[in-house]
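[Automated response] Your request has been received and processed.

Submitted sequence:
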Amino acid sequence: APGTDKPAAPLRTKDRFDIVTRLAVLGDPDAPRLLAELEKTETSDEAKRYAYAARAAFGTAENKAKFFNDFLTNKSISESWIESAIVPFNSIRHRDLTQQYLDAALKELPNLKRTRKIFFINNWLASFIGGQRDQKALDIVNKFLADNPNLDNDLRLKILENLDLIERA
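Generated structure:
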């Protein structure tokens, strides 16, 4: 703190990655270099997961396509890594890049229900729906619900719960 002899609390590994992830979301030109430097010094399994999530934060169409494909098809990526990455992937600042994945993310729900833990689906929906704020996204979700009348009721309710964010926006 200013004016005291006490040193500031040191940043934890997660804090360092959170900062770089935020810079990546914001499109800071130093973010790739800072992430690369961090990856050299932080090499624990936890740090590797944070680095994966940070890479999902870069706002390019190619990057978003790569990560969405990873989320659905790359079986070598653990559930916890995907959960860490879907939040920066779906940053509200990148909604123009991620909205195209909203329908596919919803269509994946029955499969995710069979293959993932229950809390994964909550996080999946909160990230993919929560990363949107416009009428087009609302239309995508409502069309999905209308086109899938036999969707499991628990999934339908989870979607509606998350949809409230867009409706209020």
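Summary generated for your ticket: The mean pLDDT is 94. The two ends are 38 Å apart (CA to CA).
If you did not submit this request, please reply to this message.
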